Amino acid sequence: MKEFIKGANPYMPLWEHVPDGEPRVFEYNGEKRVYVYGSHDIEVTQYCGRNYVVWSAPVEDLTAWTCHGVAYETHYDSVLYAPDVVQKGDTYYMYAAEHAGSLIVVASSKTPWGPFENPVETKLGFDPGVLVDDDGRVYAYWGGCAAPCYIAELEEDMATIKEGTLVSNPLGHSTCPWNPVEDGHISLIDGFFEASSPRKVMGKYVYIYSKRYEKPIPELGVYTPNNGFLSYRFSDSPFGPFHDGGDISFNGGEILKDADGCGTMTYQWGNNHGSIMEINGKWYVFYHRQTGVNEFSRQAMMEPIDVAMGRDGKLYIGSIQFLNGEPVASVPVEMTSQGPHINGLDAYKWISAGYACHIHGSSTRAYIKPGYEQREDISTPVVDLSSGTTVGFRYLQFGNNTPKQVQVVLGAHRKLQVNVRIDSYRGRIVASMEFLEDECEKVSALTSAVIGKHAVYFEFLSEEIGVIAEFDRFCFL
Length: 477
Prior knowledge:
The chain has two domains: about 20-330, Glycosyl hydrolase domain, family 43 (Tachylectin-2, Chain A), CATH 2.115.10.20; about 345-475, Sandwich (Jelly Rolls). The two termini are about 15 Å apart. With about 475 residues, it is mainly beta. Strands 27, 29, 32, 34, 35 and 37 form a six-stranded mixed beta sheet that branches. The protein is about 0% helix and about 50% strand. It is globular and about 70 Å long. It has one helix and 38 strands.
């Protein structure tokens, strides 16, 4: 039986839904692993769930993820929002967001996967992020939505705000319809929205957060208010002042550019939350994407990023442009299907349509259908395809020998044609096949050679109106 790709983007199994992921590298019993702590979208009809689970992978192989099970259950019969976990000494501290983030408690464990127990109530607020500095001092960052951000130093108990250290609104809160400007608070057109995550990078204090843009960003296909970004600012002090950084990640999928440089998103953007982490000498951004038709089945994503310091002390994070070896600008890293498979997904394994990072041209709003059945061969289909829809995967690895065939599996569908294109959704066609309504699986010969690493797109065409197909999975032979 042909093997399914694992550890792609999303990097957890397709049945798992962990957004808001805070990555941490911890060494325990002589083994270094990256652990991800996030919310748990299991309520289905609303955000998050009533427990946290912990996933980890060895730093040497970020495609091999293990679930350690439930690390924390609600102690207040409430939905748990985004948490964070830090280590101080031989103890791990989880900042759990009870009551949908309105009550933050700190629980502890002697292992990085928990269980985290003995919760203590704190005065921290929404979306807490915590930094243990090199000298052992601890700083907490929080805030979001209808409230500004805050920074404070914590006492040795990891729960109490140290007197006289509270700083209010160091970034300036974004404007939005439900957030009227309050006296004494700075409000920005494009400012802090939520998702505080402090990190120490190259000696700088980096404040990672979700930014809300009110103005258009045509080059990224953003023409209406949008908070699908992970952004950053940096400072020489944990309390600021913070200098403008940029945007690290945007979950709007592949951005198609026209001749004027204006973009079109190819994926349903939604709220974003995550952070950056250096793992085995390489930097990554962890974020989340949306599946389904709302924001209640989000999934964990990751991409390799660049991190560099300019001669002027400016910190660049994301996809960096260099001039004569010097960083001069950075833009959001692209959203891909490959994630930690940085050389591309193995084209000869089953690849679920659920790994698509491009769904474009649908008149019926095609989307990835969430799956919750915990099995190894789960494939989450792209559903509600209409004629002219393209579904793309960035990137696949074909190796040095071209495949001879491509195999495509559909769900329910009408009579249609499927074209396989390379490098662009309008790229050259390397295979084409006709499906009758009673044919769900088909193999077609490739008409030209494909070797190395390429983006791959499936184009669905039919004379039928409305929904014409569900796309389940594919592989090359």
